[in-house]
Amino acid sequence: MKTWTGLAAGLAIEELETELLLEALFQRFGHDFRAYDRPALRRRLAGAMAQQDVATLSRLQDKVLHEEAAAAAVLRALSVGPCRLFDDVAHAARLRGVLAPSLRGWPVPRVWVAECAGVGEAWTLAIVLAEEGILDRLDIHATLANEELVNAMQDAAIPLAELDAAQSRYAGSGGKGTLHAWFDIEDGQARLQARLRRRITWSQYSLVTDASFNEFQAVLCCNALADFGPVLRQRVLRLFHDSLARFGVLCLDKPLSVTDAFAGTYQGVGGDRPWYKRVG
What we know:
alpha/beta; 10 helices; 47% helix; 280 residues
């Protein structure tokens, strides 16, 4: 009996520490993780504790509030992690087969990549749409809640070895040429060509607190929705609905259920990830 009582007390303390840390991040830095799914959040916090070499969330909170480097590291740990170029071959193929055809009929199509997984995700999208003949009249808006990460994306580069490793994944997605053709290479670093980078606008934006900021012909959220708790999930789905033009395309990392906000206004497209067309 004492063992169970002690376990329950420990879990209650951990829950309280979690709530206090999340409140501190919100009050001190304006990043709101309070409505995130708790199991997913705890896994990331455990990684942050190991990185900062602390045994409790209270010690982690102390470092966050008093050490700038620790705060930045924890905020990065709780944000969407970066993905590799053409990281998901099947998804990149669906960008060619589903997204590109849906954008061709719009005069100036806009694509919102919400909580973008770094340049790997944004550059993959830009290369695919360039090869499909759409990029020159396209606006890609890549947003992240973490302003530090946004700033890092503006003039980012990747090691040449990563570009070489991505060639087979690029070919598997339907790419016909060589990835190197889309990059400027200098001193062992590869940077997406300027004509493609100009089509990508990086900006700070919070799915938790901010309102719809434009109408888009496609909304892609392939990395964040699974981390959201049920209330926040509904809030974000309403936000996407408010931002997506009729007959626009929505791509998520977690399928819609019949109880989700505006689920009845979408028609499934199918594929490796949940793809939908707004029909209502």
